[in-house]
Amino acid sequence: MELWFTERHTPNVKFSIKVDRQLYTAQSEFQRIDIFDSKEFGRFLTLDGYMMLTEKDEFIYHEMITHIPMAVHPNPKNILVIGAGDGGVIRELTRYSSVESIDLVEIDELVIEVSKKYLPATACCLDDERVHIFCEDGVKFIRRCDNKYDVIIVDSTDPFGPGESLFTKEFYGSCNKALRDDGIMVNQHESPFYDEDALAMQRAHRKIVESFPISRVYQAHIPTYPSGHWLFGFASKKYHPVHDLNSVKWNMLGLKTKYYNTKLHCGAFALPNYVEEMLRDVE
Questions:
Q1: pTM of this prediction?
Q2: Marked catalytic residue, from 86, 155, 158, 197
Q3: Which residues, 6+ apart, have CB-to-CB distance to 202 below 8 Å?
Q4: 63-73 residues labelled b (16+ CB within 10 A) or e (exposed)
Q5: 37 counts as catalytic
Q6: Lateral strand order in the sheet of 42-47
Q7: Which of 9, 24, 39, 92 would staple 13 via disulfide (CB 3.0–4.6 Å)?
């Protein structure tokens, strides 16, 4: 008997991975958490039946959501990460010696515990002394913050269930208030390819544009996400994601990456025409 994990991308499209075995399953207070093992993608994490990460391609997502803002901001010392209980963003952030403090706000403590046990390559730096973990609602947490962070990374699930409140105008406004005068926020921005995902992307973009003077979108290819074409949002009070990139400074850090580089950084903001049109429609 063959075991397959299947995720519905649209009413007419499904994505499947052949599974060797299921390593873990549990229902937390917020969502169902599953860990599977597969030959093609290694171990992978799903929440409520939706793919969050695989060992094979997680580096693409985590490098692109982390290094883009870190390469633009001239001196990022205090970072806030919302979501990201799997630890991938934290792993990338802790590679910067200049970072002094990282606050991780994850609503579901069980995601952190499961990731530490079953995804050690991703969750390997959650015990770094600069990391402070808060298991609470990110929306409520950020309301209490004012002029505190240089960079905010919103590594949320999709805009329904536990992650729904992280796609509201109120939340983006709170992020603006929590950032310092030259702060940067990045977020996962959904896919532009399938209609339902594209509408969610447009709704999020509209709200971010209303909250920040500089707002741009960039892309990456992530094979296990719907359509493989994935977007991220870059929002800032001061810095342009391409014009203010200091490539020489970032390359001097000597960070070894598998996907991100500073040439790709600039190219990622060059979007296909159909995506540009979607964004213009809501700006």
A1: 0.95
A2: 155
A3: 278, 279, 281, 282
A4: bbbbbbbbbbb
A5: no
A6: 21-27, 32-38, 42-47, 50-54
A7: 9
